[in-house]
Amino acid sequence: MRICVCPGSFDPITNGHLDIIRRAASLFDKVIVAVLRNSAKSPSFTEAQRVDMILTACAEAGLTVEVDVFEGLLVEYARKVGACAIVRGLRAVSDFEYEMQMASLNNLLCSDVQTVFFMTSAQYAYISSSMVREIGRLGGDISALVPPSIQEQVLCTLTSKP
Ligand code: PNS
Question: Which of 116, 135, 149, 157 could pair with 60 in a Cys bridge, judged by C-beta atoms 3.0 to 4.6 Å apart?
């Protein structure tokens, strides 16, 4: 059984994330989407909302995945759940340095969990959670950026905040 972890903040999940999860599901027997619990960051969406939106978006896309929350080191979490790989998406060159650093350090910490990268599909290359938050907050159209089933929830939460 080949298990992978797709980790992230998912604040909120975007069409780009969903594309990576879908492609991971085509290669691995089990995909665990792991939401970072990070008290140092203050996300726009609560942990429960982020988990709920991932479950909703994956169900709508017909993807059978597990969704979990993790804290502490990602490699420790991956080891604990029996994952052989960490899956990340790579967009533009700007992602590369950060992802290279993370993959190298994770490999140093735990060499039996491999980091696997998917090059983001061209139509999602410009999407990020932070841009979704900004556009949503400013009343822009996010319909091309996030899965249809969570659009309303995303907009409601973003526009209700001061
Ligand atoms: O969606 P993000 O915010 O780019 O995801 C970043 C994430 C969650 C993958 C990264 O912050 C992470 O793995 N955090 C857990 C702490 C950890 O293991 N740090 C060492 C990485 S070298």
Answer: 149
Amino acid sitting at position 60? E
The whole model's pTM is what?
0.96
- How much distance in Å is there from the Cα of 160 to the middle of ligand 1? 28
Nearest ligand 1 atom to alpha carbon 101 = 22
- Which strands form 3-8's sheet, in the order they lie side by side? 66-70, 30-36, 3-8, 85-90, 114-119
Confidence band, pLDDT 50/70/90 cuts, at residue 41:
confident
Tell me, yes or no, if 17 is annotated catalytic.
yes
> 15 CB under 6 A from ligand 1?
no
* Phi-psi sector, 62: left (phi>0), alpha (psi -120 to 50), beta: left
SS3 34: strand
State whether the beta carbon of 106 lies less than 6 angstroms from ligand 1.
yes
162 band by pLDDT with thresholds 50, 70 and 90:
low
